[in-house]
Write a structure and sequence with these properties.
27 strands; eight-stranded antiparallel barrel; 1 helix; about 375 residues; mainly beta; six-stranded antiparallel beta sheet
Length: about 375
């Protein structure tokens, strides 16, 4: 049976589009960890628009209505069809409930949210700064869902307590990457691959946000201890999701196979994230990672940080760490309550602040 879509679909006028500006959207709370993202928004005389933060499509906007110090957003706003998964997408406002579970066998803790739709919600609006968003009051347990359909929560992305401030991009130098030792594994023929995992900061040392769309990493190899670094090229012959040779990989790029990324660091610091890439050779003495930021009209890079599997002393060390918690993520880096059908990531946190990432395949 086919049903006609009756939900409103909003598009700013040409005059309103001329007012579009970059905004920094902060989402999350103390329990779910904050995250940040650059989005387009429009603050007009009567209306406020936010471009779909899930896919950044020019023709998909969420509309709000200004009323003094508040801006109201209705639920059930239709975006259109998502070109990646061919789903009808809606902006649904919702309430969320935090759940915490303990596994009695392993003593691990897992937290996750469930969502229920509501008719809409208000955001605070500051006319002077043109900032707007959901307050951090405990009672404000509200979120936007970019949802597949408008009958039950089945979301492609969730944004808890979104708050928007005008964003001006400036030249910035990233902090140097940090390797996650227990997630750097040498290539072996038995496994068919190895992998390197590192943490990167979402802000520079002056607390300027680093726009993920202009943030990359480069990989270098050294043939011996004293050899000069050689820039590594990721080739589509080996990394099948790539269409051309690449020497720079976006920090948030993930392809379900060779590249992974997850928000949050091994110590739970929300201003950091980790990225991982597979390796298919041991034909090097050391492997290096350099971060590159191209914001504000300049390109700035970090020093190259090196990792070597030679004499690392990793093998044979007795593991006396205790598990302190477990989280699950989908391949977009969104936390989920439990593994889903397909590929999921399991992050086990230990008492010493380290963590272990496992790829789970569920075919049910």
């Amino acid at each position: 049976m086919l049903n006609k879509i009756k939900s409103p679909k909003y598009q700013p006028s040409a005059d309103e589009l001329a007012l579009a500006h970059d905004y920094l959207m902060r989402t999350g709370d103390a329990d779910t960890a904050y995250d940040w993202q650059v989005v387009k928004a429009i603050v007009g005389a009567e209306n406020v628009y936010v471009r779909n933060p899930y896919n950044n499509r020019d023709d998909q906007w969420i509309k709000g209505t200004l009323n003094g110090s508040k801006v109201h957003f209705d639920s059930n706003q239709y975006f259109g069809v998502d070109s990646a998964f061919y789903l009808h997408l809606y902006a649904m406002t919702s309430n969320y409930t935090l759940h915490e579970e303990t596994d009695p066998t392993y003593g691990t803790n897992t937290s996750y949210n469930t969502f229920t739709f509501n008719p809409g919600f208000d955001m605070d609006f500051d006319a002077g700064s043109k900032s707007f968003g959901v307050s951090q009051a405990v009672a404000d347990s509200v979120a936007w869902l970019i949802n597949a359909g408008n009958t039950v929560p089945y979301f492609t992305a969730s944004y808890i307590r979104p708050y928007f401030t005008p964003y001006t991009e400036v030249p910035a130098t990233p902090e140097a990457p940090q390797f996650q030792a227990n997630q750097c594994v040498a290539y072996s023929a038995d496994n068919g691959y190895g992998y390197i995992t590192f943490h990167y900061s979402k802000f520079d040392d002056k607390h300027n946000y680093l726009n993920a769309g202009k943030y990359f990493y480069r990989v270098y190899l050294k043939a011996s201890k004293d050899a000069s670094p050689e820039l590594f090229t990721f080739s589509p012959d080996t990394y099948f999701s790539l269409k051309t040779d690449q020497t720079e990989i976006p920090v948030q790029f993930a392809d379900r196979s060779d590249f992974y990324t997850v928000n949050g660091s091994k110590d739970g610091e929300p201003t950091r994230a980790w990225a991982s890439f597979n390796t298919y050779t041991n034909d090097f003495y050391a492997i290096g990672v350099q971060l590159v930021y191209k914001g504000g009209g300049q390109e700035r890079v970090t020093d190259i940080k090196w990792w070597s599997f030679v004499n690392t002393g990793v093998k044979g060390v007795k593991d006396s760490k205790k598990v302190s918690g477990t989280d699950y993520y989908d391949l977009n880096g969104c936390r989920i309550s439990r593994p889903r059908t397909g590929v999921s990531l399991k992050v086990t946190h230990f008492s010493d602040g380290s963590s272990k990432v496992e790829k789970l395949v569920n075919v049910r």
